[in-house]
Known about the structure:
The chain is an alpha/beta fold.
Amino acid sequence: MFDAVLVGCGAMADGWLRALRDTPELAAAVRLRGFVDLDPRRASALAARYGWTDALTGSDLPSALETLRPDLVFDLVVPSARRQVVETALVAGAHVLSEKPMAASLEEARALVAAAQQTGRLHAVVQNRRYLRGIRRVRALIESGALGRLTQVHADFFIGAHFGGFREQMAHVLLLDMAIHTFDAARYLIGARPVAVYCRETNPPGSWYAHGASAEALFDFEEGVTFNYRGSWCAEGADTSWEAHWRLVGTRGTLLWDGNEGFSAHVVAGDEGFRRPLRPIAVPDLSAPLIEGHAGVIADFLRAVRSGHAPMTEGRDNIHSLAMVMAAIASAETGRRQPVTP
């Protein structure tokens, strides 16, 4: 069993703790021995709410690490505090799983990659969209070759989201707070490295956000694949799923995916006519059970710690998704195409 310390006991913690409590594989593998937050009362209240009444609680992370010597640290702090928390935990000998984004800047993300390498510990990031049945089924279809060579990927994300609070005052709110999920999903599906982006960012009339509630971004990937993102957090009347709506075009056919479990795929079935005849193809179901969402990320992280192999969302990989966000923001600010440089 792994001993763990959870750092950052705000609203995000509930999703993590429900996953740890309600997933048998995780409940049997993780013992939460410490809860740390800037407000020690919040740490105590969270521990009590989930039944970890014997856990150490407080606001001093170095002291908690020295006392408990945990195997794992779950990092749920705000991005501006992430570097200090992760580096402190890695140096103390713990493997770290962080909330997204990986860091507040690419410079800090590079420092975390270096810290993990220097300490010989894992640092991974929660990109939970990779652990959903729908995206795994799409990835399997692409890898089967049924669509031919992938050439174009399009993702539409349109939701009228009234969060209130800090998001409505953020600069680049869509790109910084949400688009990284879609960008990371695109990287996972395309299986190649993003190299450049042109992005246009707007705040449409009627937006209840201070800045950047909508964006369009066109990415170039290696191997000639393009990824076109259109998104808005102030588009009401016809919401997409939180996982976006997708069109994936290959040299033999096209897949439409609603981001959940809705699929429509057709491939060319003849070589004559102005518009070639098509035939539908099925998107096969998964051949093995899948632990989804946050629980899936945590389970993969635990397997990686046991085996010594890299988890799917290790920092060395996830920095490329953060680089997509930062390059898109730079393009929106300058009006010019920008390289994607992790």
